[in-house]
Structure formats: structure tokens, C-alpha cells
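User: C-alpha cells in, sequence out, please.
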């Protein structure tokens, strides 16, 4: 295989892995930009090795036809090892915490990036780039559809008074992510009289939750002085 073709395939692998990894990095996931690039390059290298091994076998058989029954090409062997082996890396991005599981999407993107790297290494540019476009659409555009399908139709508001705002905000954000609660808007303020820092969260709840359950769960945190459903002034 020509050196120019090898460099082209590796460059496409960098672009493909980086495009998917950028979205994961933006969402602050455990496997981000560089990880996805490295996985895609690694898979591409494996398939390039397989291609070059097969070309070498063909050259040797053409030189000495008697070797055709001894030297055999197996396109799938190294690729199969990549597909199964990437599961260990993907498993490392999955976190089980207090009954919730996080990182499944990132694990799936790592597996997908590996398959795209194999496709690029074998020279299937149309397949790999078409799959890249579809993957980016799924990760970004379909998020809005997911929110509409699995969250309630109306937004709700809660007022929160903080004892220690930074720690309380971290706890609230973690709780919202765990419960798949979509934050529509956040409005921070400080009471001019007593200096109490507070916030109004506008949230969209999954259909399995109600606002009273959310308030009850968040009220257990010591860094929250008071939490209540917001009532708009008439």
C-alpha cells in the first residue's frame, strides 16, 4: 500500500475519532477528545496491518504459486480481536453509583469509533464517513427529541436557599443528572437584607418523577437551607 494512502486513512481516523470525541468532551464524559482519536487510530492501524499482510501474502503466492495452500489470508481475525477487546476500555467508562448507571453512551461511542477505525483502515471511506455523520446526528440532534419524549411537557420551578452555595449546586447538579432531570434555566440571586444566596431552577421532569419527590430528596442535603416549589407573583 502506498504511503500516501496510509497517511490519508490515518488522517481520516483522527478526524472521525475527534469529531465524536469532541461531543463527549463537551459533555464532560470520562472518555473524551483524545481517547476517541487514539481508539480510532488504533483500530485503523490494526486494519492497515491486516491489509498489508494480505497484500504481502498475495505477492508471495504470485511469485511462488506452490505457497497458495500454505499461506492463507484471514481478513476478519485481527478485526474480531479489536471488536471484542474494545469492550474492556468501554467497561472502564461505565460507572455504577447508588443504583444509577452512567457512561453507557460513551462506552457505545468508543465501540463505534473502533469499528469506524477498522472501516477507514480497510479503505471503506463512504461507510465510515456516512456512519460518522449519523453518529453525530444521534448524539447531538436527537437529544432534543429524547427530552420531548421522556420528559414532561411543562416546565416547573423550585426555589432553593443555600447554606453553602457551591457545594449545594454540585449536589443538585449530580442529582438532576442521576434522575435525568433537564435544567431549562437557572437564576441566582442574593437577598439584600440577610445576604442569603438563593436560586430559581426551571426544570423539566421525567414522567416517572413529580416535583414533591424532587423537593423531598434535595431537602436532605445540609448545604440547602430551604427548598420549595416556586410560585410566580401575579
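Assistant: Sequence out:
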Amino acid at each position: 500500500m502506498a504511503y500516501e494512502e496510509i497517511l490519508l486513512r490515518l488522517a481520516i481516523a483522527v478526524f472521525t475519532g475527534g469529531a465524536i470525541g469532541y461531543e463527549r468532551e463537551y459533555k464532560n464524559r470520562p472518555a473524551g477528545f483524545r481517547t476517541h482519536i487514539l481508539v480510532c487510530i488504533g483500530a485503523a492501524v490494526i486494519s492497515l496491518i491486516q491489509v498489508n499482510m494480505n497484500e504481502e501474502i498475495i505477492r508471495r503466492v504470485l511469485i511462488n504459486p506452490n505457497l497458495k495452500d500454505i499461506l492463507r489470508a484471514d481478513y476478519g481475525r485481527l478485526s474480531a480481536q479489536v471488536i471484542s477487546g474494545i469492550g474492556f476500555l468501554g467497561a472502564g467508562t461505565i460507572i455504577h453509583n447508588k443504583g444509577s448507571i452512567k457512561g453507557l453512551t460513551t462506552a457505545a461511542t468508543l465501540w463505534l469509533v473502533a469499528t469506524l477505525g477498522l472501516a477507514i483502515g480497510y479503505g471503506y471511506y463512504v461507510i465510515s464517513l456516512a456512519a460518522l455523520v449519523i453518529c453525530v446526528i444521534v448524539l447531538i440532534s436527537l437529544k432534543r427529541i429524547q427530552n420531548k419524549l421522556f420528559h414532561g411537557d411543562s416546565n416547573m420551578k423550585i426555589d432553593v436557599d443555600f447554606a453553602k452555595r457551591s457545594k449545594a449546586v454540585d449536589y443538585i447538579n449530580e442529582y438532576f443528572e442521576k434522575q435525568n432531570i433537564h435544567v431549562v434555566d437557572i437564576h441566582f440571586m442574593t437577598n439584600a437584607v440577610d445576604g442569603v444566596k438563593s436560586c430559581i431552577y426551571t426544570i423539566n421532569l421525567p414522567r416517572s418523577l413529580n416535583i414533591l419527590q424532587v423537593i423531598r430528596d434535595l431537602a436532605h442535603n445540609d448545604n440547602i437551607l430551604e427548598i420549595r416549589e416556586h410560585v410566580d407573583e401575579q
